[in-house]
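Hi! If you just cloned this repository, the fastest way to understand the data is to look at a raw example. We've pasted two of them here, unedited. The first protein comes first, obviously.
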Amino acid sequence: MPTRLDGEPMVIGLKDVAKLVGICIVSFCAVFVCTMFLSYNIDITSIQDKITVAQVQIFYDAQVLTSKAVSAVSGGCLLITSVIMLLFYIKHYIDTHKKELGILKALGYSNFKIAKNFWIFGLSVLIGTLTGFLAAYCFMPTFYGTQNIDNILPEIEIHFHLSLFFFLVILPTIVFSMISIIYACIKLKKPALNLLKDMVNVPSKQLKYKKEANADLPFLNELQKNTLRQKKTLVFFIIFASFCFSAMTQMSFSMDELASELMGIIIMLIGIILACTTLFLAITTVIRGNIKTIAMMKIFGYSKKECSKAILGGYRPMAYIGFVLGTIYQYMLLKIMVTFVFRDMENIPDYKFNFSMMCVCLIFFIILYELVLYCYSNKIKNISIKEIMLEN
């Protein structure tokens, strides 16, 4: 285990932070959306005194409510996802570096002394939030124009808001760094010997229950269920990926009367990016976590299709559950916006569920998801048994 010049252990390097691309992308999307809408919400207050027509006042109030609603819903959802993703990365890092961390504890380093090095995970949040903030300001002139495309409101000037920079870039970086240290400290509360031996403490009752529950299952079905049970966080990522794809794509096609075409394109792109990122993270981690199992299955003569079904097949129902949840979410959100946010505006039709569009989005999702599974099935086929044996 290398050390720095000041004698502190180098637990995490910049290469490890570079792997946190998922957090960077989620942070980017969250801050990009929130910066545009919150900045617009602040800047639009400067023209409130210039509004004298009742219909313009209604449009103004609708714009303010929309900005708050979009920022709260998208920002809150992506914030929760970022936290879960961060905790997953830290747990995954500790699980894959148990022996190195065990050596440090055996040498006398305290849990906190090791855990405080995990602040560096906050850099991934800094990169994502900072690039999202800068990208939002670059795009803001176009966004402000589309928000007032019919020139109903007086011209709104763009201003830089230092408070937004603090709350959307600086504060999240500090908070996520602190969360990383605290969570790492909790996960390191194990005897050094357990870490060195790579031991996992499972209550005897739980082991007995699992043994009895799986006693009559075929091997491949048992492996599929155990993979799901052991990778519960990845189940969330699979559901979230399909949720994002479903909600964002359907919402983008259903906002013709509520927002500009450009806003629909932005929502769709963010949904597809988030879906692909989390799906890539989840499936890659599943394969890496079961690479030895896959190698042993290949030794015993199981085909690529059987390996793929046992390791990845159990996540397919989770993906479709996520799609259904995303469909319900986007319908409820748009229904609420039409009912409450735009209730006083003229020429806003009642929002109805678009079943045909849902079917189109579902077909595209099935194609995308099955294509990803097919590509990773080929990756399973190319896993070298010799390489795995040499690693051990």
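Ok, and the second one:
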Amino acid sequence: MHVYINGSLIPESEAKISVFDHGFLYGDGVFETMRAYNGTVFMIEEHIQRLFRSASLIGLDIKRDKDSIQSALYETISNNSLKDAYIRVTVSRGAGPVGLDPELCKEPTFIIIAEEFREYPESYYDNGIKTIIAETKRNIKEAINPQIKSLNFLNNILAKIEAKKKNAYEALMLNAEGCLAEGTISNLFFVLSQNEKAVLCTPSVDCGILDGITRNIVLELAKKHGIPAKEGRFKKEDIYRASEVFITNTTMEIMPVCKVDSVSYQVGSVTKLLHEAYKENVRAYLSKSYTSSQLP
């Protein structure tokens, strides 16, 4: 595998950054995770736009434009002979003397890692995954803006440790007010019955969550298919009485949940409908997008 670092593709064994890089020292940087299907990076413009948003919110000048980032992404995919790929773009403040002052770093570090996408087990989609509600609370939005996809992931890692101790795949996090927020790497959806109708519920952005790209697609698909959706503030008791639960992100798409703490769920009709609709959305996107082989 070759890794893209600051304009060059470097063999994995030689891909290194400085021990003085402030991404390593302080978590001072941002990232995006993307997925390529048959050589096409899905929602590439949205991901790059969000990368710039994250960088802007921490005052980080990436020193690249959208087109150069897109070209670098496809160059990395092509160089590694990939079609279906997992892609991680990382931009740190760069190397500089020890200290918190961002001006100590003169040039950002720009990295792209692309590797073959490893499919999730089919049993996850057929039967769902186990989750817990973590004791670790989500960082409050007044302290760290959740719209920043930051390299500082310790909050999420602590919740993930809780999940692993309880043999769960994912941890769902509450905010400081006790409202449902999001998973360590995912957005959360669940189905409640209201007035004999199935309503798709998801924590609102005001709860201190990242406005996930997959999350937004799911909300659009729900509207398209006539499924009422509600973004709001929910307690853990709400999810305990749900009929269906699923989580979303770029790589897993729509992942059913079979258990939250001690409460079990079936993979229901709303989850199945939206998952199939999402796959159709991906197919439609690919049909009108350039593949890496078609790019100059």
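That's it. A detail worth noticing about the second one: Residues 127 and 193 are 22 Å apart (CA to CA).
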